[in-house]
Design a protein that fits this description.
single chain; 396 residues; nine-stranded mixed sheet; two-stranded antiparallel ribbon; 12 helices; 11 strands; disordered N terminus; Thiolase_C_2
C-alpha cells in the first residue's frame, strides 16, 4: 500500500512594503517607479533579492510580469498577471499566499507603478472615457456609459432605496481629507467641508469633483514570504490570515442589485477563512475611487447593516483622530494618491499601521495598544470584482 504524505501548509507573512515616489512625478517612467518601489520593499524586509522566486504584476506592457521581472533583473519560477482592475492586488495577494503556503514559491513580490497623471499632463495619453466597445460592452457604450457614470448610477440607486443623502456621501470625502492631513506624503492635505464637496463642479450626477478620486503618479510593492524567512527579516511580520475574491458582472444589466457590491461575497469568505468577524477588525483600507464605494463596501463587509452606511459614515467615525473605526488612514484615493489600480496601496498602508509605523496617522486600539487586525478590500471595474484580505500582526 502506497501512502501519500500530506505536506503541512506554511504560514505566510508580509515582510516588506513600500511606495515609490508618489503624487507629482514628472520625470520617471512607470518601469522606474516599479523598480523604486521594489528596491524599497526589499530593503524594508531585510531579505536579499535572490530569495524572491515569484512575481505578480499587472497593468504595464504587453506581458506585464515578464517585462517587469526582466526590468528588475528577476527570473521567477512563479508568476501571476491577474488583472481585475482595482481589486487586482488583493486577488494577487490571495494567489501568492496560497502558492507560498503550498510550497510552490518562497517569496513573492507584488509590484505596480504608473505615471497616469504625468502622461496626461504631457499629452502622452488622454482621459479614458470607456474601456472599449468590444464584447458585452458593445451593448452599453453607444448609450454613453462611462466608468464614472456607472458608479454614479449605483450611488443614485442606494439613495433611492435607503434614503442615503448627498451630505452623507460628501462626509466620506471630508474624513478622507482629514486623514490625509496627517499623512505628509498625501497629495492633498488642506481640510475640506461638506459644503466644499457639494458645491464643486458636477462630474456625473450625484458626484461632484471631490466625490471622485484624484489622479496621481506612483507605485507600490509588497513582499510576501513563507514563515521560515521571517526570522531573517528586519520588520515585524504581518500575517495573511484569510482572503476572498469574487466577480459579479461586467454589463450593468447583469448586476442584480446596484446596492450590493462583490465585497459582500469576498469579505464573507475572507473573514470565514481568517476565523474572525467584522467586529474584531481594528481598521479598514477600502478602495475609494468614489465616495459611494467606501459607503457600500463598509455595508457589504458587515461593519453596518445594508442601507445604514449613510448614517454610519456621517458620524465622523472614519477619521484616525476622533473616529472609532478608522478607514483609509492614509487619505485614500480621494486625497492621498491614486495612480490607477490602487489596491496595492491599501495593503501597504494596512501593514504599516499594524507594524506601528504610520507616524501622526497611527491607529491605536481603545486601550492604547497597536491594532492587531485589519482588512484591505479592493474593488475593480465598476463594482465588477472584489478582493478582500484579512491581516494580523505577528505570526501566532
Amino acid at each position: 500500500m502506497t501512502r501519500t504524505r500530506t505536506r503541512t501548509r506554511r504560514k505566510v507573512a508580509v515582510v516588506g512594503v513600500s511606495l515609490s515616489d508618489c503624487g507629482r512625478v514628472d520625470e520617471a517612467t512607470p518601469y522606474a517607479l516599479h523598480a523604486q518601489a521594489a528596491r524599497r520593499a526589499l530593503a524594508d524586509s531585510g531579505l536579499d533579492r535572490t530569495v524572491v522566486d515569484g512575481i505578480a504584476s499587472a497593468g504595464l506592457g504587453t506581458l506585464a510580469p515578464v517585462e517587469v521581472a526582466e526590468y528588475l533583473g528577476l527570473r521567477p519560477t512563479w508568476v501571476d498577471s491577474t488583472s481585475v482592475g482595482g481589486s487586482t492586488w488583493e486577488v494577487m495577494a490571495a494567489h501568492a499566499a496560497d502558492a507560498i503556503a503550498a510550497g510552490h514559491a518562497n517569496a513573492v513580490l507584488l509590484v505596480y507603478g504608473s505615471t497616469a497623471r504625468a502622461d496626461i499632463k504631457a499629452g502622452r495619453r488622454t482621459g479614458n472615457l470607456s474601456f472599449g466597445a468590444r464584447g458585452p460592452l458593445q451593448f452599453e457604450v453607444p448609450y454613453g456609459h462611462t466608468l464614472i457614470a456607472k458608479y454614479a448610477m449605483a450611488a443614485r440607486r442606494h439613495m433611492h432605496e435607503y434614503g442615503t443623502t448627498l451630505e452623507q456621501l460628501a462626509s466620506v470625502a471630508v474624513q478622507a481629507r482629514a486623514n490625509a492631513a496627517l499623512n505628509p506624503d498625501a497629495m492633498f492635505r488642506d481640510p475640506i467641508t461638506v459644503d466644499d464637496v457639494l458645491s464643486g463642479p458636477m462630474i456625473a450626477d450625484p458626484f461632484t469633483k471631490l466625490h471622485c478620486c484624484i489622479r496621481s503618479d506612483g507605485g507600490a510593492a509588497v513582499l510576501l514570504a513563507a514563515e521560515e524567512y521571517v526570522q531573517d527579516c528586519r520588520t515585524t511580520p504581518v500575517r495573511i490570515l484569510g482572503t476572498g475574491e469574487h466577480v459579479s458582472h461586467t454589463t450593468m444589466s447583469e448586476w442584480p442589485d446596484f446596492t450590493v457590491s462583490p465585497a459582500a461575497v469576498s469579505g464573507r469568505t475572507a473573514f470565514r477563512r481568517a476565523g474572525v468577524a467584522p467586529q474584531d477588525i481594528d481598521f479598514a483600507e477600502i478602495y475609494d475611487a468614489f465616495t459611494y464605494m467606501t459607503l457600500v463596501t463598509l455595508e457589504d463587509l458587515g461593519f453596518c447593516e445594508k442601507g445604514e452606511g449613510g448614517e454610519f459614515v456621517a458620524k465622523g467615525r472614519l477619521k484616525v483622530a476622533g473616529g472609532d473605526f478608522p478607514v483609509n488612514t492614509d487619505g485614500g484615493g480621494l486625497s492621498a494618491q491614486h495612480p490607477g489600480m490602487r489596491g496595492l496601496f491599501l495593503l501597504v498602508e494596512a501593514v504599516r499601521q499594524l507594524r506601528g509605523e504610520a507616524g501622526p496617522r497611527q491607529v491605536h486600539r481603545p486601550n492604547g495598544h497597536l491594532p492587531e487586525l485589519a482588512v484591505a478590500s479592493g474593488t475593480g471595474g465598476w463594482f465588477c470584482s472584489s478582493g478582500t484580505v484579512v491581516l494580523g500582526r505577528g505570526m501566532s
